[in-house]
Amino acid sequence: MQTPEQKDVQQEPTRKLNTQMLGKLLVVAVMMFGFGYALIPVYKKICEITGINTLTPMNATAEDVANTQVDKSRTITIEFDGNAQGPWRFRPTVASMQVHPGEMAQVVYEVVNTQSRPIDAQAIPSYAPQQAGAHFKKLECFCFKQQTLGPNEAKQMPVVFYIDPALPKDVRTITLSYTFFEVAGPAKKSS
Predict the structure, then answer these.
(1) pTM for this one?
(2) End-to-end CA, the chain
(3) Where in the cell is it found (predicted)?
(4) pLDDT in tens, 13-56
(5) What count of Cα atoms within 13 Å lies in the side-chain half-sphere of residue 25?
(6) What share of the chain is helix, strand, coil (3-state, %, to 5)?
(7) Domain spanning 76-182: which superfamily?
C-alpha cells in the first residue's frame, strides 16, 4: 500500500501537465476572442479595397445614392379608390398622386368598424387599366393578410409600392381600387 506522500509524488506530474494544459487553453481562448474582434475592421478594409458590400457613407446626399431605376422622364398619375362591402367606412387618405416609374411611394387607407362587434375582413385589389396590375409592385400592403377590427376601431393601413419602369409608355394613369369585405360574416349567437 502507498503512503499519502507517495501518492502526492505520483500525482505531481499529472497536476503539472493539467496546469500547463489549462494555461494553453486560456491562451487559445484569448487569441480566438482577439481574432474575432479584429475581423470587423479587417472585413471593412477588405470590402473597401475590393468595392464589395460597401455601405453608404454617413455624409452622402440623396443625389449620391439615388435609385438609378427611377425614370424621371415619365410621370404616372395613380388614382386611389376604396369600396366597402360591410359595416365600415373605408377610403384612401388621398385621391391621387404623381409618381415616376421606379420611385417608391406610399398611400394610406383608413377603415372604421362602425359595429359594436369585432370583424375579420380582407381587401382585394383591382387595377385599371388591367395591364397595369403586372407593373404595380407592392412591398407592403394591408391586402396581404386578413385584418381584424375591434368594435368601433379605426385603423390606418399603408400601401408601399412602386411602378415597374417596364410599364408601357402609353399608360399615364393607373387606378388602384380595393374592395374591403367581411370574411366570416356576422358571428352567430349560440342558443
Answers:
(1) 0.59
(2) 88
(3) Cell inner membrane
(4) 888 899 999 999 999 999 998 888 787 788 777 766 766 654 44
(5) 6
(6) 30, 35, 35
(7) Ctag/Cox11 (2.60.370.10)
pLDDT digits (tens, 9 = 90+) for 54-91: 444 444 444 444 455 788 889 999 999 998 877 788 99
Could you tell me how far CA 72 lies from the centroid of its own chain?
26
Give phi and psi for 16, each to the nearest 5. Answer: -65, -40
CA distance 179 to 91: 10
38-62: string of b/e by CB count within 10 Å (b at 16+)?
Answer: eeeeeeeeeeeeeeeeeeeeeeeee
Pairing, β 76-85 against β 173-182: parallel
